[in-house]
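Long-time lurker. I teach an intro course on protein structure, and each term I like to show students one example going from raw sequence to a predicted 3D structure in token notation. This year I'd like something fresh instead of my usual example. Would anyone be willing to generate the tokens for the chain below so I can use it in lecture? Attribution to the forum is fine with me.
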Amino acid sequence: MLLTLLTPLALLFLQAPSGAPRATEADFVIPNFRFTSGQTLPQLKMHYRTWGTPKKDAQGIVRNAVLVMHGTGGTGAQFAGRTFADELFGPGQPLDATQFYIIAPDDIGHGQSSKPSDGLRAKFPQYGYLDMLEAEHRLLVDGLGVNHLRLVMGTSMGGMHTWLWGERYPDMMDALMPLASLPTQIAGRNRVWRRTAIDAIRTDPEWKNGTYTTQPRGLRTAAQLLWLMSSNPILRQKAAPTLAAADKEIDTYVDNYVKTGDANDILYALEASRDYDPLPDLEKIKAPLLAVNSADDLINPPELQILEKEIVRVPKGRAVVLPLSDKTSGHGTHTLAAVWKSHLEDLLRTSAASATTQAPSGPNPDIHYQLGPDSLPRADVPKGEVRGPFLIQSQAYPGTQHTYWVYVPAQYDRNVPASLMIFNDGQAFMNMQGDLRAPNVLDNLIERREIPVMLGVFINPGRRPDQPEPTPQEWGDRTTNRPTEYNTLDDKYARVVVEELMPALDKDYNISKDPERRGIGGASSGAIAAFTVAWERPDQFRKVLSIVGSFTNIRGGHAYSEIVRKSERKPIRVFLQDGRNDNRGVRNDGTYDETRDWFANNVKLMTALTEKGYDVNYTWGIGRHGQKQGGAILPEMMRWLWRDHPVSTDVNDSVERAFNTGPAGVKKGGQ
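-- Reply from a regular --
Happy to contribute to a lecture. Here you go:
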């Protein structure tokens, strides 16, 4: 919802409710928050309001938490008013605060949370909806200890976030209620009015690249557009039935808006919608979802029929379009709870069964997998250097570029050809707070001669220059070329590695030309991509490391087991890891699709490789689709893949028997 759109209602939103309890307000600070743009903020402040107290079941699961998210330009304060809190939070009402624990954050860039106008202005990191979602999740889980949600709901932008919550955290909630939103990217008129407001600010000389001292005139144009898209024509006509009345209405609104609004804040808020697109993953939403729009909403007009068409893809989805009436108020109807609270009551009633039956049957299987000493830094082991980021432009995928980093071990000698290990989804493998921490593994194993001296290359999936860099929170399935590059069974990504990446590496490093000394690995879709590279180009790469590999029917990957059986054996070595609690191909309606069963297809591939006489190893655990087990055994996977590297048995070979020695017998490595 655009709070600034709704001048006639704004005072109602912010008035203290007469019946509902008052909110408790506080801040949660997230240190070193990394945005999908690659930018970081040393301290990201998330302001929030809560009503009620959390209640846990016997397993320690919070069962009564409700997340309520505001719209563009709004804050959590709008939910404390008479039109919302008094209708929902009071005794005996649908979200009675004596029974529910209600959380209403101020999102990034809004209210009392960190925003450009705090001081950084245009140097504030460029945030998107995925960043806002990550911050909301960390507020709940890390800040408030909420591990489950009875309900996720939001208005306008908050409604759009609700769709994303259902896709990104499908097992975390019992029900979802997006209000005044559509499950598709910002396009058509909705994009153009936003773009016009954005351009009005950015092209205004008074904006001064965000360093203005007084609000630029472009902010007035943005305010006019915000007014134009709000409410509905009938209410607008009643409020301004004459030319003079209309001029007074818009002038008063704009004057008041400019007194309290900020050009950078609204600019960033409008631009944040660039990465919103839930359309590809609607089937991933597991919880019952009820979408509520109104027929007089100019931002989400029912004539588009988008909601009606796409809601059928949500397994437990329903949609309601409220008819125009004297109670609706265009886009702002979403905060008039009296108009739609009967639908909320129905959603809470119909989702009550799942709310009481979704308690986990046992502990999280991933808790069994912990990083060992070989994945952690050691003071007595020399540290390699991670260099980068570097960019290569792609010819295999025109218009895209790949970011990569190079791990150079302390033992690297420019005069001696080094082995090579490439890791797809490089950001995940090089993340030193993540589950894999490959630089530590390389440091420790190289130092002990358990793997050869090798360069490690961490490469991210390709993206257009206007798309964000993948991060540990968003690997790029929605924001980059990752799904196409990694899951398609063709030679294009192999061309990226062999014809584009390798020449760039060869310019700066001495890398062995022997394919036996070159490996490639990845997790999930990055794993099947690694296998495809070696399969297509065994003349270049012969070692494959696969963690929860997506050998499934995302884009035909389930066919690999039969492809292996029907093809001549290739000189490649493969280590497969997967868990029995990976995605198992069971749809929400209970039907089973074997081609979408990760674990079964990993086992099938292992069987086919074994039958054909491949050098294959595998570990089947009980983990989920993630890197917990793969990270825990990454050192062992690397030892096995590289077990036959050259070794000296010469009793006089001091390098083989001790740490590398420097001049005059001075030992490196601190021992």
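Some talking points for your students: Residues 1-18, 357-361, 660-671 have pLDDT under 50 and may be disordered. Residues 190 and 299 are 6 Å apart (CA to CA).
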